[in-house]
Amino acid sequence: MAVTLKDIAVECGVSYSTVSKALKDSPLVTEATKRKIKEKADKMNYIPNNSARSLVSNKSHTIGLIWPAVDRVAITTLATHVNEALKQAGYFMVVSIDNPVRAASKFLELRFDGVIVFDEGESTTLPEKITNNIPVIAYGVARELPYPIINVHHNWAMKQAVDLLIEKGHQNIDYIGELHTNDIRQIVKQETIEKYCEEKQVNYRLIDSGGLTEMAAKQAVKRFLKTETLHDGVICGSYDIAMGVLHHVDELDLQKTIVAYDNIKQFNSIETPIYSVGVPAEEIASSLVKHLTRSIETGSENNPEVIDLYPSLQFHEKK
Amino acid sequence: MAVTLKDIAVECGVSYSTVSKALKDSPLVTEATKRKIKEKADKMNYIPNNSARSLVSNKSHTIGLIWPAVDRVAITTLATHVNEALKQAGYFMVVSIDNPVRAASKFLELRFDGVIVFDEGESTTLPEKITNNIPVIAYGVARELPYPIINVHHNWAMKQAVDLLIEKGHQNIDYIGELHTNDIRQIVKQETIEKYCEEKQVNYRLIDSGGLTEMAAKQAVKRFLKTETLHDGVICGSYDIAMGVLHHVDELDLQKTIVAYDNIKQFNSIETPIYSVGVPAEEIASSLVKHLTRSIETGSENNPEVIDLYPSLQFHEKK
DNA sequence: TTGTACGCGTTATCAT
DNA sequence: ATGATAACGCGTACAA
């Protein structure tokens, strides 16, 4: 049986409310008794009971992250940054790889203070039944939602990519990304390419990566190359897809310009010169945390706000 | 403010203890009132308070998974299987990507029912201070630990791999894996290769993959190939490393025999014929869950038991 | 400065 | 069949 405040109180010959105060450094307790109590608590290996605390304070200092698809390097990096940012802000982050609605329901039952969703569209939408009861923030692309979402402007990013390729003199562009999907982020990228290339009057082809992982992209490009050849202006839908594409691109082919979506440090260790465009993972993380904690601390309702973050273009030279 | 049992009681004109019973289908309540209460509860969007439950029952029906390095495909697959198995067993799984000791401490404070650790050696070792207070099970390779560990016999697996290569007539073997690391799993693989190849009197080389990710392996092999060439018997330390190595292997090179550690379904979609050797992820998952839940339900102390799981060899033909 | 007492939402035991 | 009540561990307003 775990050690409780009472146990410590008995040991120290004080009442348990004094112990409670002492352990949270209340000014209402003498330094001397405080020290004694803390020492004892430590010696007895006291572990505060969050359930009890949460019952009285209505706070768990814990945030749940809903992240159904634990793969893809890019998003892993983001999760790590979010974890750090939350720690800084005094929260513990916990992730569920379960189905989003089940995950959120459990988070509610556990009385977590807030939830973050890596939004992918329909499949990750949380019902109001849930979101009326806990601060929520999503990360993804702007869409009709009863809770705030960090919008990373995939369309803006894709336009920058196209502009860059045009500037480099490429009139033929290949976009490699996931085409047949419900993931709204992927859809936006694809549609932007279509519209913007037409607007700018450059030729483009859409090549289906058949998924978001490196392996899927690698195989898709391989199939493609059996009958066709890649143009010199290439846009990849994500870091992982770029990795898959690069298997088939000669590093010494300096004709080609490759631009990939995402903005993570891993691009720096690629051996082929490459451009990337996206919002830095740190920035996304700190924005998520800032908005969520504000909403928690003010106790305000979730509102359908869209928080815009703008991508930036970077060049990664050959290492 | 969240709906409580009391609120429902008032609405239904019964006492809240009746509501409590009704909602857990106690036989002590009439079907009629039960139905009425359940209906109301649903309508009022009642969400049970796990903190309160946990306080009285000492159970949270939640398990924490400690998984500091969310990358690598192979282990992601395992996590997914563990999540499923725990769900079947009536538990909710939650993962922390934080530093293992902090994660475990928080799990304790949250009064989770048990913790699973993806063990990597020193860096993921939990102190007794913690493990004396909660059922723990690790996944990794046998080592001195105050709590049970599922041992997947990397050495057995590597021996099978070497035997296979010898049988296929290869007297020169290349092992590609992470060589300079504290990760005990990698160390065991490496050392087994060394000893067993010497015992069997076959030539071998150790090639450092410089990490456990596909990208690291890919670059390492590329460097290697600048001055040397790969032997026809190749052993890869993991699925991800194999993926990195395959970038440099011609699919049509039927001279080569490639064996990779791990046993996950992803091997089936590789386009190069490949062998794999390892314990199936499902089996690891169900073993982890079985032992942990037994330990939770019997309330027994953590003991330093080693649970052995044996790898099996599989061939994946060209798709 | 320290102690007492109440309440948080729930379960479980005991009366009714 | 239903209701009243104690207890779980803790925070805090109030009393001493």
UniProtKB/TrEMBL annotation, chains A, B:
> What are the recorded GO MF terms, alphabetically?
DNA binding
UniProt entry keywords in alphabetical sequence: DNA-binding, Transcription, Transcription regulation
Q: Which Pfam families match?
A: LacI, Peripla_BP_3
HTH lacI-type domain mapped to chain residues? 3-57
Q: Where are the transmembrane segments?
A: none
Q: What is this protein called?
A: LacI family DNA-binding transcriptional regulator
User: What is the originating organism of this protein?
Assistant: Oceanobacillus locisalsi
Traced from the root, the source organism's taxonomic lineage reads: Bacteria, Bacillati, Bacillota, Bacilli, Bacillales
